[in-house]
Design brief:
The complex is a heterodimer of chains A (302) and B (234).
Chain A: H1 5-16, H2 28-39, E1 45-56, E2 59-71, E3 76-80, H3 87-95, E4 102-107, E5 110-111, E6 119-122, H4 134-144, H5 149-162, H6 178-191, E7 196-200, H7 208-225, E8 228-233, H8 236-242, E9 245-249, E10 256-261, H9 273-301
Parallel strand pairs in A: 3-8, 3-9, 6-7, 7-8
Antiparallel strand pairs in A: 1-2, 1-4, 4-5, 9-10
Chain B: H1 16-28, H2 31-63, H3 65-79, H4 87-94, H5 98-123, H6 126-134, H7 139-174, H8 182-191, H9 195-228
Helix pairs in contact in B: 1-9, 2-3, 2-5, 2-7, 2-8, 3-5, 4-5, 5-7, 6-7, 7-9, 8-9
Classes of the chains: A alpha/beta (302), B mainly alpha (234).
């Protein structure tokens, strides 16, 4: 499904002008619920009561506590939280690389069974294959699917152009800069044409200029391909810059503290005052959690 | 120089000239060529077998705690056993046959391949396996296209060592009967009291070992270093 953000807001407006008996039309969140109910639209990704507990040094540690989250098809959701809040783990759960202690992950209303190419995770450390060329890296997922060589080459070529890396197709990973590696990872993930793209702090290790550039590119590619994106970051401005919605996580156990809707037109710019205002609002909410995480850290180290 | 002094009789310490004549004669009457061909064929089969078994066994041991605990110690202790010690067993099991020589080659080299594969699989960053699974690689595909290539830099030393062991075991194995290989040629030199031939064959064995290491393994190593961007260690 290729719904651009513009169409989504139109749909909302459509419902505002269509009052249904018994529902307060002024409350936007209620209208959204209503929209789901009326259209019967199942969310692309639904997390139902996800809890994850594991043993750390013998004592049980609650990493994620009853996470309930719904992501619509074509939505760009950002998750922010202090380090160690379990936001990366949540992506691993959605990707099917890890099992929750309880709760279910639904894609289009169906529970997942292990990893699947409908959900591709871009790891924080990328995990590009150093023994393959850039083009072979991008083709990898298609090769695993058993797609014939000619088709594979065509698709890989398309996505390499999309991330503007065509002339590096035959290079090896170590020959590329950090920003270029990010783009390879993005192309590799997109080439399998997943419905959902999971991104785990992908731009954390980049310098500010490269990051800004990749924000622009990601926004463009997202609009062009209509993928659903769940983007984890600790950078609040980045979240406000990219997300339709930003979910703030609490520190240990990870819970969703609050959700913010970022109703700003696209393409956006990170310096835009409205984005900064948004970021500040989110940061005020997050600061408390960051302090908690720092406190914990000092207690452990001292 | 030492030969010139004539401290020892020529049949114990031959002159370089005698040796080079023996080399020339060996190649001229094709006996060296045949021996090299036969030995190379054996080592190719034996080494391929031992790499296949070693890689699979090493991977299994790296994934299964049970196998690691039971076989791990055994592997290390068996590795201290010189490969010639497998000879009596090979002869009793397979007789004086091709199979016996193959058995000695495999037993001599499989352990170092297995052990290096196991440690390689463990040292390999977990991210590659996760990324592979994430992109839809399962079972055999995951092994062939991700786990094996990812562990190669860690395994290469083991593969090289395995080759060296295999080569030694082969020569030892060939010495036991009329096997046409280089090892037998060496023993023939002894039987005929022909020191020139003994030295000539020894030179041949060293040369082949060196060439294989230099041509095949060095090239392979350099390619790997180029792809991964590792700095060459020379």
């Amino acid at each position: 499904m290729t719904t651009s953000p513009q169409q989504l807001t139109n749909a909302d407006r459509h419902y505002v002008t269509l009052p249904v008996a018994g529902w307060p039309t002024s409350d936007v969140s209620e209208i959204r619920k209503l929209q789901v109910a009326v259209e019967g639209e199942t969310p692309k990704v639904a997390l139902n009561d996800i809890t994850l507990e594991y043993k750390a040094n013998g004592s049980p540690l609650l990493a994620l506590d009853r996470i309930n989250l719904q992501v619509k098809a074509g939505e760009f959701l950002c998750i922010v939280g202090p380090s160690g809040c379990g936001k990366s783990t949540l992506l691993h759960l959605i990707a099917g690389l890890q099992q929750p202690s309880s709760g279910t992950v639904l894609i289009d209303g169906e529970p997942i069974h292990g990893p699947g190419t409908d959900r591709i995770l871009i790891f924080q450390e990328l995990g590009l294959f150093p023994w393959l060329t850039v083009a072979d890296n991008v083709e990898f997922g298609l090769k695993m699917k058993g797609i014939p060589t000619a088709e594979r080459k065509r698709k890989a070529g398309y996505y390499l152009r999309l991330v503007q890396l065509s002339q590096f197709a035959d290079s090896y990973i170590h020959q590329l800069s950090g920003g270029m590696r990010q783009r390879v990872a993005l192309a590799r993930a997109l080439a399998t044409e997943p419905d959902v793209l999971l991104m785990d702090e992908p731009f954390a290790a980049l310098d500010a200029q490269t990051r800004d550039l990749l924000h622009d590119e990601l926004e463009r590619i997202w609009a062009q391909t209509g993928r659903t994106i769940i983007f984890v970051t600790h950078n609040v401005r980045e979240a406000a810059r990219l997300g339709d919605r930003v979910a703030v996580f609490t520190f240990r156990p990870g819970r969703i503290k609050r959700e913010f809707a970022v109703d700003q037109p696209r393409p956006r710019q990170i310096e835009h005052p409205a984005i900064s205002r948004c970021a500040k609002e989110i940061l005020d909410d997050l600061r408390e959690e960051i302090n908690k995480s720092l406190e914990q850290e000092y207690r452990v180290t001292s | 120089m030492v030969a010139r002094l004539r401290i020892w009789p020529p049949y114990l310490f031959p002159s370089p000239r005698g040796v080079s004549e023996a080399l020339w004669a060996g190649f001229a009457d094709h006996s060296f060529w045949i021996a090299i061909a036969v030995s190379m064929k054996r080592i190719a089969v034996g080494y391929a077998l031992s790499v296949t078994i070693g890689v699979l066994l090493g991977l299994l041991m790296a994934t299964s705690k049970f196998l690691e605990r039971t076989l791990g110690g055994l592997m290390v202790s068996l590795q201290s056993l010189p490969s010639i010690c497998w000879l009596p067993m090979a002869v009793l099991w397979f007789g004086l046959s091709e199979k016996a020589i193959l058995f000695v080659i495999v037993m001599g080299s499989v352990l170092s391949v297995t052990i290096s594969m196991e440690t390689g699989r463990k040292q390999m960053p977990k991210i590659y396996a996760m990324a592979g699974r994430n992109l839809g690689a399962r079972g055999l595909k995951l092994f062939l296209f991700v786990l094996f290539p990812a562990s190669l830099p860690y395994v290469l030393t083991g593969l090289k060592q395995g080759w060296a062991f295999a080569w030694r075991s082969l020569i030892a194995g060939e010495m036991i009967f009329v096997s046409l290989g280089l090892g037998q040629l060496l023993m023939m030199g002894r039987d005929l009291n022909d020191m020139n031939q003994v030295i000539a064959v020894m030179i041949l064995i060293i040369a082949i070992g060196y060439i294989v290491d230099g041509l095949i393994f060095r090239t392979f190593e350099r390619r790997l270093q180029y792809k991964w961007g590792l700095t060459p260690t020379t």
